[in-house]
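Table S7 (text form). Paired inputs.
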Amino acid sequence: MRTHFTPIRIFYYLILAAMAVFFLLPVYMMLLTGVKPLSEVDLKTMWQLPTDGIRFENFIAGFRQLAPNIKNSLSMVIPAALISSLLGSFNGYLLSKWRFRGSNLIFTLILFGMFIPYQSILIPLVRFMQFMRLYGDIPGLVLVHVIYGIPITTLIFRNYYATISTEIIEAGRIDGANLFGLYRHVVFPLSPPSFAVVIIWQFTQAWNEFLFAVVLTNQSHWPVTVALNNLAGSQLVQWNVLMAATLLAALPTLLVYIFLGRYFLRGLMAGALKG
């Protein structure tokens, strides 16, 4: 089937191309600065290509500085994304297919957690983490991201499970399946599209989060976002190494969307965000 390039279609493509260039300019600047020697990093020449060769050692230096923090971030985001997704899945199943008295109120209260500003609960959260002996360590940060991820994961799964035929659930009940049996054998196998959306969302949110990370962890357990901030705030900033380190820090989320983006779109199209 041939595509006819009408004037309006060409105009749309030009607008999309302009928006893509606009959003990719910072990435281009980071990449360009990351491969330059420090002597060529200057505001007057920041758009120019490096004249003294490409310096990949900037990425090596950036990785050496961020390697422990990248490990901390992975230790935090992977369990946080998986646990919050599983809890949100079971919550969504209960609130969509096992209606009980007060379920709508409980769902509203769960959603209320999405609108609480993080800054307003920092002091009681710190005291709670100290009481639980989780302050300053990665497990405490995992717990926080799991709790704050439950509202959005519950919303996504509830709306997705609402599209599943109730007759399937009723047939399982007639066959003698209980609450957990229906979830394990009927609902969970139908959930991969929604899990793709939720895990990608939670992974990205936890990886990029800064406030909880800087407040609830100590220096040896800083995730990569806090470490980057401290690199930029040092007295002598090596901007070429900093830009290379920033690209390395952004690489996991970029890879997630590059390789799993099609599953994210399939999940959206399958009704994961339909209400």
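Next pair, protein 2 of 2.
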Amino acid sequence: MTLRAATRGDVDRVELVEGYGIRWRGAGRGPLLVWAHDAFASVDDDDNDRADHLVDLQRLTSTNRVVRFDAVGHGRSAGVFDPADHEWTARGATLVDLAHRLELPRFAAGGTGAGAAAALHAAVRAPGRVDRLVLVAPTTDWNVPGPVQRLPRPVGLGLLVGAAEPLRLLGRCAPLPPARDPVSRYRAAGFRRLVEAPRNRFNAVLIGAARSAWPEADELAALDIPVLVLALRGDPVHPVRTAVHLADELPGARLEVAADSDEVAAWTERIAAFLAE
């Protein structure tokens, strides 16, 4: 793979990255952004159901060169279902290794939910390569205070994993009603992807995420780069307290909290403006 192929034209192919086939897609022109999708999502999912996502990545290609990839066990990448390969650090390593394989220059990294965690771990892993971050609806982890985090970690993880399978089965029997506004569609789509996931992916992704955590405070403090953190009020899976925690620990962070769907609808343009600075 040459730098020219990775940074110009519309490209959709599979690269061998650290022994795994990783599907990636590049499109658009402008400042370079490498984007990581949320848990249970994929590049095709982001494209086919654009209205169900908080950021319109296709629209972002009008101002930026956007490189996206399917995490292992997702989309058209290798079907790997060891929970260790689905921990946030592993997804961050995939992002960095793919960028190295594609010979990308310095770039911005970003993602939604678990993808935001992957982007942040990528920046910690390769601080000389990532020059800014976009963290959209960052998901919670065990180090951010919350109701479940008050329990001993093994107990809390057992409760989370044990409750997820009945919830998945219930979702297959009783689908959610149609959602009309962007935020409701995003939440409904995330639940639908969880419900429809094959059992091997479901277990691997859930356990991998449950074992994961954000980087340590000293690692976050060392990331002296611009960071845009976008959060949404009233989202229990991606709580504002997580975004506040990250914004407090990252020296170059700007936190913006959306109160409603109208403010979320402006996020794509907000990200484009941030990347153009």
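The mean pLDDT is 85.
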